[in-house]
Amino acid sequence: MKKIILPFLFVVFLSFSSFNVFAQTPQVETQDTTQLAEDEKLVVVWTSGDREVALKMVFMYTYNAKKYGWWEDITLLIWGPSAKLLTEDTELQEYVKNMQKEGVHLLACKGCADQYGIADKLTDLGVTVKYTGTDLTNFIKERKVITF
């Protein structure tokens, strides 16, 4: 009888030991919330001189993304023909003022603005005008960037 009970108890012991291993709560990786702040930064690079692209895509998305909190930190980088268009169109200028009121950062490329002779006009609109090659490089490395 001892010969039968001893192996039986050994099998029962192994069964319970195995069960306990599988019954343990698995370790779940938690998201590092300190990284979320960096993931909430967006740069919209606006290069198109097309007014309809500005109104129906660039401005509509950028404005609403900030207003409704889709992104915490938004920079609109005005580069090339878009800078010239902005200085010539009062409706676009009003839209940009509304974006500023919502907290969108406005930045324009000084090299481009100088080529068009419009750096002062952009500054008067409340746009920060500076050489932005390094800024764009850093934006690409550190933020989400979309271009139009």
Question: Please, could you describe this protein's structure?
Answer:
The chain has helices spanning 2-23, 36-39, 51-67, 81-88, 90-102, 110-116, 119-124, 133-142; strands spanning 41-46, 73-78, 105-109, 128-130, 144-147. The protein has 148 residues and is an alpha/beta fold. It has a single domain (38-147), classed as Hypothetical Protein Ychn, Chain: A, CATH 3.40.1260. Strands 4-3-2-1-5 form a 5-stranded parallel beta sheet, sandwiched between helices. Strand 1 (41-46), helix 3 and strand 2 form a beta-alpha-beta unit. The longest helix is centred in the first third of the chain and has 22 residues, at 2-23. It is globular. Mean pLDDT is 84; it is low at 4-34.
The CATH superfamily label reads: DsrEFH-like
Q: What is the strand arrangement across the widest sheet?
A: 4-3-2-1-5
Number of domains: 1
First and last CA, distance: 84 Å
What's the pLDDT, averaged over the residues? 84
CATH topology assignment: Hypothetical Protein Ychn, Chain: A
Q: Can you summarize the main beta sheet? A: 5 strands, parallel
Structural class: alpha/beta
Q: Helicity level, as a percent range?
A: 55-70%
> Which second-level CATH architecture applies?
3-Layer(aba) Sandwich
The count of DSSP E runs of length 2 or more, i.e. the number of strands, is 5
